[in-house]
What does this fold into?
Amino acid sequence: MLSKAHIQFIKENIDSQLTELVLKGFPFEDVDASFLAQQISARQRMKKKLPSWIAKDDVVFPPKLNLAQSSSEETANYKAKIINGSEVADLTGGFGIDAFALAKTNKHVIYTEKDDSLFNLVHYNSTVFELKNFEMIQTTAETFLKNTKSKLDWIYLDPSRRDEAKKRVFLFEDCQPNILSLLPILQTKCDFLLMKTSPLIDLSYGIKELKYVRKIHIVAVENEVKELLWELDFSNEEILPSFKCIQFKKGKQIEFEITKDEASTEVTYAKPLQYLYEPNAALMKVGKFNQLAESFQLQKLHPNSHLFISATLEKEFPGRVFFVKKVEEYKPKQLKKQLKGKKMNISTRNFPLMAKDLIKLFKTKDGGENYVFFTTDFNQQKIVISCIKAM
It folds into this structure.
């Protein structure tokens, strides 16, 4: 797909402005200029998301929309740790990031994709990566499931979250393929299913609709939830699932698994102590905090504040940790004089006003090393906690 001359041109212009390149024109008649522009643009944008793909000069990248819908290498490799079997299929192959990762950890991987251009592009890239255990079938997930005679160990699905008008959707029944309509046949074609969905999906809704969920993986990157991964075991219906919270931050992977029922774990409440803890985005999505408090021997400020406290530092806490400098009652008149014009990061937890309202009210500037939490303690007292990051 790319000649040596094309590759050299891309390398020489990797830091160039695309608009300037297009205006100057591309020195090739054997390839479309928009295709080369697409390759340069992708390599400029995907350095962090797909580093080992960028490292290979002859990898070809798809259009922007396909790239945006693809997993990152970090999250793809995480899925490959979950899925372990002799016969595995990715039935919504797309650009192939997940399928290529699965090929590293499984004996035989089947990739399916209905789109001609994507299928051909992935076929080419599979030769670049020298995949030997990789079978490709150009078809839909529905057709594959209907025609295959084999029972697989695992199937992976990442339903498209765009409708026919290219608008975003997220409910199971609105995605393509519709996982709810496929569940009966999937039960007969694999032992386990891993499905990626939008972070917007409500967890209780997913558990109710999918029925066979044994574990939900909540995957966050730089404190933003990027994926929900639903792990289904078709041999066990209506089980109580566990929740595995994964945070990828600055090259580090932080995990915390919630296996207990909230009601079985007691939590104590106290006023602010030396250290304040804010759970990461993955844990906030789950919304179950009692086991977290128990595991790290922390106390809570309030049942609904979701902020934790301790007298000693817990370095392994999965989230942000702050050193408390000052705690005071919420008195707006006094705070106006105190905070006006100062630079700080304002957050609210279980508080009647939003952060943007407080910034406007107190005329503060956003940013800096100071963090201020407006919250409510277990005595229903509105308080203000001033902190700096502990680590």
User: Anything to note?
Assistant: The chain has three domains: 4-67, 71-258, 262-389.
